[in-house]
Design brief:
Blueprint (H helix, E strand, L loop, with lengths): L16 H6 L25 H5 L3 E3 H6 L2 H17 L2 E5 L5 H15 L3 H4 L11 E3 L14 E8 L16 H26 L6 H6 L3 E9 L11 E4 L5 E6 L7 E5 L2 E4 L7 E5 L1 H6 L9 E3 L7 E9 L5 E2 L18 E2 H9 L18
Parallel strand pairs: 1-2
Antiparallel strand pairs: 2-10, 3-4, 4-5, 5-12, 6-11, 7-10, 7-12, 8-9, 8-11, 13-14
Length: 364
């Protein structure tokens, strides 16, 4: 999530995909139909070994395990960040009833009449409110998804007008959930630092007052899931992203691994973590942000709740010196202001890892 930057752009009226579903139309509007090269090939990825290879990290073993358990889990964490940029975390100590409550609140919001949800519009060029982000052209293909996003920390990025009073207890639930997710991000970054043989507090000290935002994604069933994407391929601009997949969801998250889209099979009560562009830059490319996307289902709706955790906007970012070797592993990324990168990220459409070109040093 980046600061609110208003663009002088009018992209016209965007169809609400939930309303399209209610209308029971069998034809998908052209605005959502992807070009042939972008369309998902559904039901053909038979890679159980690949999908199950996305590591599952047991946070309890990192927090309270014996020396052997800790060492094994740290090695697994390092491998997942290097090879996948994704892992699932279990025993994260976030109460299951809180996970259920935030999911329930999100569903209740998305089930409100469209007129009620549109009281909290996501304006063009912004990333808070209800609607679709990253839309900059009348001709741009749209994602089969409705979003509702809010800035959380620091308070200066909040837009109080976008915080709904309905459903009741929505704000209180988001606040409680976000406090626990923030603690999880802080803990994970300490273990990621240790996996790199760095001081465990290096990221916390570097990030200042870390920026945090939440986005709820609702993917209605689509009559032609083979023609659309729920969310365009992209990497995240954050340091860490935490994804909660709704219970009973169809598998919708795909990660690009060795030029193959691998479905992420949900693990019960786990949260999905992915490395963002910021960690890739800080580790000089050792830990990589992974391109990922969401697909839709013909019969099942899908919900996800995503938290983005990133450095303060006034922090300067660049490869950590201990991870740079001028002869064997020179800096692959320049130093830059994180707020500047956030602005770049939010003012461009989602195009794989293209936004990271902003930070790359061209090869000589």
């Amino acid at each position: 999530m980046a600061p609110v930057f208003q663009l002088p752009l009018n992209v016209g009226q965007i169809d609400d995909v939930q309303e399209l579903k209610k209308a029971r139309k069998t034809k998908v509007p052209d605005r959502f139909v992807r070009d042939m090269a972008e369309r998902p090939i559904l039901g053909t990825i038979r890679a159980p070994l690949l999908s199950s290879s996305i590591p599952v990290i047991d946070l309890k073993k990192l927090m309270k395990g014996n020396k052997e358990e800790f060492h094994f889990e740290i090695l697994k964490l390092s491998a997942s960040c290097e090879e996948w940029g994704f892992f699932q975390v279990i025993n994260h100590e976030i109460e299951l009833d809180l996970l259920e409550k935030i999911e329930k609140m999100a569903m209740e919001f998305f089930m409100l009449p469209v007129e009620e949800k549109q009281k909290y519009p996501m304006a063009p060029g912004t990333v808070q409110g209800y609607g679709q982000a990253f839309v900059f052209s009348e001709h741009q293909k749209l994602d089969w998804c409705n979003m509702f996003a809010l800035g959380l920390v620091p308070h200066s990025i909040r837009n109080p007008k976008l915080w709904p009073t309905n459903p009741p207890m929505f704000s209180e639930t988001v606040e409680a959930y976000s406090r626990d997710i923030r603690k999880l991000c802080e803990d994970l970054l300490k273990f990621i630092a240790l996996s790199l043989r760095l001081d465990e507090n290096i990221f916390e000290e570097m990030f200042g007052v870390s920026v945090q935002a939440i986005r709820m994604n609702y993917y209605p069933a689509c009559p032609r899931p083979d023609l659309v994407l729920g969310l365009s391929p992209h990497s995240d601009g954050s340091a860490l992203t935490v994804l909660q997949q709704g219970k009973g969801n169809a598998v919708g998250l795909h990660v690009l691994k060795n030029d193959t889209w691998v479905p992420v099979q949900p693990v019960e009560n786990a949260l999905v973590i992915n490395i963002g562009d910021t960690i890739e830059v800080l580790t000089n490319g050792r830990y990589k942000s992974s391109e990922h996307r969401a697909v839709t289902h013909k019969e099942k709706d899908r919900l996800s709740i995503v938290t983005f955790y990133a450095p303060s906007y006034d922090v300067e970012i660049g490869p950590i010196q201990k991870l740079v070797d001028d002869e064997n592993n020179p800096s692959k990324y320049r130093r830059y202001n994180h707020g500047e990168y956030s602005r770049h990220y939010v003012t461009n459409k989602l195009q794989g890892k293209k936004t990271l070109d902003f930070a790359k040093i061209p090869p000589k």
